[in-house]
Amino acid sequence: MINVYMDDYRKRPEGFALARTTEECLMLLRDCEVDILSLDYDMGPDDHNGGEVAKRIVLEGLFPRSIFLHTSSPWGRKEMFEILYPAKPAGTALHNGPLSVEQLYKIASGADAL
């Protein structure tokens, strides 16, 4: 089981696989069992945005155990949340914001953060 951090700019937190593009993120969701997914919205001028990833998660049933929306875009966070929330299965937790420093520390140390 892996944790995935999708962001075109920010540094990868310890304990996460980094997806620098939306396609890399979707590939990891399709090919791996994902525990925690942390999504950015703005993925650069030559890529789709986090809203497209949220749509693919719903359409393909790619839900991980937990999803965090770490984007600094309030509009992007709202769009992703509104796409994911109505479709999320009972076993998936959706957080309308980033992981806390404490959660990131626990993940980096190998402990269960959630």
From TrEMBL:
Residues 2-85 form the Cyclic-phosphate processing Receiver domain. Keywords: Cell cycle, Cell division. Pfam families: cREC_REC. One of its GO terms (biological process) is cell division. This is Cell division protein FtsJ. It comes from Paenibacillus agri.
